[in-house]
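Reviewers of the previous submission asked for a worked example of the structure-prediction workflow described in the proposal, so we include one complete record here. The input consisted solely of the amino acid sequence. No template or homolog information was supplied to the procedure at any stage.
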Amino acid sequence: MDENRAWTAKWIWAEPSHNSGPANGSMETVLFRRSFGIPANESVKLKLLVSADSRFRLYVNGQPVAYGPCKGDLNVHYYDEVDVTPHLRPGTNVLAAQVVHYSGDKGPASVWRKERGVFLLEGSLQGLDGRVIERLDTGCEGWRCYPVPGESAKLAPETATLFIGGGEIVDGAGWPRGWRDSAFAEGWPAASVVADTHDKMYGGLSSWLLTPRPIPFMKEEIREFASIVRGHCGERIWLDEPMGPGGKLGIEVAAGSRLVLELHAGELVAGFPQLAVSGGAGAAASILYSECYEYEPLPNGQRNKGVRDDPDGKSLHGFEDTYRIAGYGSGAGEPEKYEPFHRRAFRFVRLTVEAAEEPVMVEGITYLRTGYPLDAKASFASSDPSLSPLWTISLNTLRNCMHETYEDTPYYEQMQYEMDSRLQALFTYYISGDDRLGRKAIYDFHSSLLPTGMLQSRYPSVNRQIIPGFALFWIMMVHDHYWYSGDLAHAARYRPTIDAVLAWFEARVEPESGLIGVMPEAYWSFVDWTEEWRRNAGAPPSGRTRPNTVYNLMAADALLKAAELNEATGRRDTGQEYRRRAAALQQAIRQHCWSEEKGLFTDSPDSPDALSQHAQIWAVLTDTVAGEKARQLMLRALETQGLAKVSSAMAYYLFRALAKTGMYDRTFALWGDWKAQVDLHLTSWVEDPVSVRSDCHAWGALPLHEFPAELLGVQPLTPGFATISVAPRIGALQAASGAVITPYGAVKIEWSIREARFRLRVERPGAIPVQITLPNGEPRYCTGAGPLECECELTTIEPSEELKP
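From that input alone, the workflow returned the following structure tokens.
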């Protein structure tokens, strides 16, 4: 928290007598205004600090300037700093804010909220010399408010989107026209001070512990829909038509008539649709959001999607926002506009407008695409054109799943999970070098720690959940960050939380077997979405009554990574203890979970028929088996029939095991699962092949790691890329090139094969030492500045003794 800041602003809200309260116990909206004047001959500046419970959209002279606050939790409430000087003008100016407070179990589950709504703004209008002209803090005179009537802004009942909170139901007639503009004659009541920013009583804590936003503002840009897929209004029919420039429609819907348009955004996106209409008081407009066109479900209830952008014989399924048109905006004035308050995800929308007793003009529709400002600096190209769309689709998937936290599915949940976030953060590092959202995710999960020592599996979230194995992914996430950034202080900060998590698992070790025992029944022991585990919700069924081998191996992996972090940060004794505990777990796994008959690890002890790729993969990754035995185990994992197979959620770990055992060439065939999605015209990767639920989930964006780290071959040889390894995996490729982002900048790689000779060129920032491993196994260690070039015959040789820096 921002412990040392002395706030002058106070939290404000509407007086209870003016407040109709949240509709259906879910969503309460209050509008705020503060007018102030600037003399014509005065040069001024204005910086604002602003926050709210639960969310705000801030405007200056009608222009949106901030949307927040950043997602926090019970003990961390973020505030934003906004320089609004460019939006000021001589004469009357106005600050305006729409603030929504979610309450109860409705509303977006990832948006934390307290028992009441509040708004905070601090700032003073200053001359260029720093002289204070006027204080604009909430709590000072001049702030007015308007509580939107409960029936004019509420959430729809339950939808299939789980944690998004349902669509909006908004009545435009209950909203003051032009309320954000300086010319608006408000006549609103004064806002009331409802809380101080700190408790003045002997170190007492405020309900909202304020801390500055740790990540940049989201990127927002107005986009146009690509086309009208189909539609009708009266006798007029649309079929596969491009949208007009600027999102203009200009369609008049006669009194008592109905317009239906299905629009294609061009690819799956996340943002805020913006509808403009004129006239038509009492008309109803709805916007339905969908990821794709679908057939009717299969007899077993499974969804049936097929080619995602083919509407033939299909329909759009999803939830919708509904807006009742107030009827102003006709004539020469500005059209009436509707934009939902919460971020939506969609590839297709269905706009329906039903006119009442007078015609309504549908002026146009656009959308404000929004998300984390990911600056993708990495690049990749190769001799195989089928790999290019995998890179492009992966970038779009990751962008849609990056907001104020990492998100699993922007359409269904918008929740941050450890398993998902570990990979999303790793992908982000490799393509942008930006670790700010990764740092926030690590801190978020650290903040979810329960008194038992277990982390919550998704956070921030008002709906608490435990997937025990996900806490282990968090430890791996801290380790990933250390290896990418080299930041020892950051790693050291989280040692106590790592200790707590590992102690939770240690307390569940069975004395007789030495294995971590059965997970608590109330928790979800998820491992992967596999067809074989469908009926057990992605958890190995044998783990219901016996120890879970995969969880035991993951715990060993987390112990080894924690040992390395502790040793690197000065706690050598703790590191050695963790190594001893990992070795004991590995020995117990070899003793109780190995099937000599099958030549495989079973999913649980005494479960000869419970077999999966997952147990073999994690046995290899932890060196529970090593060398030639590990290679043979991976061959059996790939070729044995009847094993539960990894889905996209665990594919990263399969690729790592193949790389570790010298069989990375086997991964080239595995890209068929991604290429099949390209053939289905997906523009982002599916969540899993079992539920066929979401069409956007970033744990599938694996090319963002594999292409830079393996096909181009750039990885840290020592933490923080202090020394760099370059070891391209050539497979069936004839050439590859691109840029890989490190904390020091881009490493540019170009390699090709001509006449059985491999040629490589490396450009790296400064004179960072580079160890090159050529495809024939020959090592080269290079220092000094300037590009590096080398080549070799494509014949395998026995590697010589490793060159030391």
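The CA atoms of residues 285 and 803 lie 69 Å apart. We consider this example representative of the routine output the project will generate in years two and three.
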